[in-house]
Specification:
Layout lengths: L1 H74 L3 H26 L3 H7 L7 H13 L1 H16 L3 H25 L3 H23 L11 H4 L3 H74 L3 H29 L3 H4 L4 H14 L3 H16 L3 H27 L1 H26 L13
Helix pairs in contact: 1-2, 1-4, 1-5, 1-6, 1-7, 1-9, 2-5, 3-4, 4-7, 5-6, 5-7, 6-7, 9-10, 9-12, 9-13, 9-14, 10-13, 12-15, 13-14, 13-15, 14-15
């Protein structure tokens, strides 16, 4: 048990810290853009986030799928298959980035209008989105490299890459936005360049003697079984990112509808906090993923369940901490983001109501990743896609009809309750009587 505790801390600690740092990218951009451009700049950039995050989701789809498979193949002693998955991951990223660029770049303006960009917001949103779309391949490679390095037994190194990227982003945001006054495009340049630095460091790691995973022409050639396995295994994580994207897209539309530009600017600040909490919980879930995937591949099912239980308990603890933090600083946060007047009041009230979602967010997130790592892709997808396409839309389009803007803030907490009830069914209903199941809280 003591060894398992050490393993948990070794992987979960750096992963949580790393994802917390990753979440700080959106916080940093929000604060600098708010200070440099005010509520209109914040609102315009917020409209682009659902599209921009799709690139990161594609990188997570490929990178997390490959990372889980590599851990499983190592657990079963099949290193040749692990090498093949690694090479196919690189090729898939480049091809996927090219496809996404070809689809989205020519249609950015109509897409942003569809997302709700009005005349006063469209020019800023368009300039930001063009730069971020051109840097999509960099974002995707960074996400994939970090996932693979974490599962390669180097969680501290994966965290270091994120730290380097965050520090670079802060320095460049300050220079480009506050010093050179480039506004939202400056924030986009800062993000792409800082992600590029992290991606280059990740590339260097796989050229070093510190890993057995190497580039080779043979493994770069796509193979049908490996490609299908990567994409299938990564579907739950992709769905997890889609959940965040759907949350942003639908919240943006409803915030504009019920609160105009002030409402959207206020939601931008709340969304940055929600994204930070979501990534924090994702870090916990991804931290135990290589361990449970390895244990599953090695047939160590009792250890696998115990590891899952640790993650559930820590998810609840972190959720309480995030909620209390939000309560304590809700009045100060709008000023940090450059908001004032009505927009600031709306943001503070939104933080108060929406932060209760943190209580259950982590437990649901851990369950999705746990199911993925143990081969229960259907159950993982049910939790994740049930959020994106059922629970959250239901709450976002019904609650505001009754409560106005308060309904928008309450959509996240209420949708978490719905998903938790679904998870309880998987724990205590659907899985009753099975010997090996999802590490539920009864154990």
């Amino acid at each position: 048990m003591r060894r398992e505790n050490k393993l948990f801390l070794k992987y979960a600690g750096p992963s949580i810290t790393g994802m917390l740092i990753a979440g700080s990218f959106s916080i940093v951009d929000t604060l600098f853009i708010g200070q440099g451009t005010g509520k209109n700049g914040l609102a315009a950039v917020s409209l682009t986030w659902p599209l921009i995050m799709l690139f990161g989701a594609a990188g997570e789809l490929i990178g997390s799928g490959a990372a889980v498979l590599i851990s499983q193949f190592r657990g079963s002693g099949e290193m040749d298959k692990a090498q093949s998955v690694f090479g196919n991951m690189l090729t898939l990223n480049i091809l996927m980035a090219a496809v996404l660029f070809g689809i989205f770049y020519p249609s950015l303006e109509p897409l942003l209008k569809l997302f709700g960009a009005q005349e006063e917001l469209l020019p800023t949103a368009l300039s930001y989105a063009k730069i971020m779309t051109c840097g999509a391949v960099i974002c995707m490679l960074m996400e994939s490299f970090i996932a693979i390095i974490r599962n390669d037994g180097r969680p501290m190194l994966s965290m270091f890459l994120l730290v380097v990227g965050l520090i670079g982003n802060i320095v460049l945001d300050y220079l480009f936005i506050l010093h050179f006054h480039w506004g939202a495009p400056g924030a986009a340049y800062a993000t792409v360049i800082s992600q590029g630095i992290s991606a280059l460091l990740g590339t260097g790691y796989f050229l070093s003697s510190g890993t057995s995973l190497k580039y080779s022409w043979n493994t770069l050639k796509l193979k049908g079984p490996q490609t299908r396995a990567i994409l299938l295994t990564g579907i739950p994580v992709f769905g997890n990112m889609l959940s965040v994207i759907a949350m942003l897209f639908m919240h943006n539309l409803q915030a504009l509808r019920y609160g105009a530009v002030d409402g959207l600017a206020a939601y931008t600040l709340v969304a940055a906090l929600e994204s930070l909490g979501s990534l924090l919980m994702t870090g916990l879930a991804m931290g135990i993923q290589p361990l449970t995937a390895y244990m599953h591949g090695a047939g160590q099912y009792k250890r696998q369940n115990r590891m899952g239980n640790r993650a559930y308990k820590w998810a609840l603890i972190l959720g309480i901490i995030m909620m209390l933090f939000s309560f304590a600083f809700r009045s100060s946060m709008p000023e940090w983001g450059g908001l004032s007047g009505n927009a600031a009041k709306m943001a503070a009230h939104g933080v108060l109501l929406s932060s209760t979602a943190f209580l259950l967010l982590g437990v649901i997130r851990v369950a999705g990743f746990y199911y993925q790592s143990t081969g229960s892709i259907g159950k993982a997808s049910l939790l994740i896609y049930g959020d994106s396409f059922f629970a959250l839309p239901l709450c976002l389009f019904i609650l505001p009809e009754w409560f106005g803007m308060d309904g928008i803030w309450l959509a996240m907490p209420v949708s978490r309750v719905i998903l938790f009830l679904l998870l309880c069914y998987l724990w205590f209903g659907n899985c009753r009587g099975k010997t090996v199941h999802a590490g539920n809280l009864r154990k």
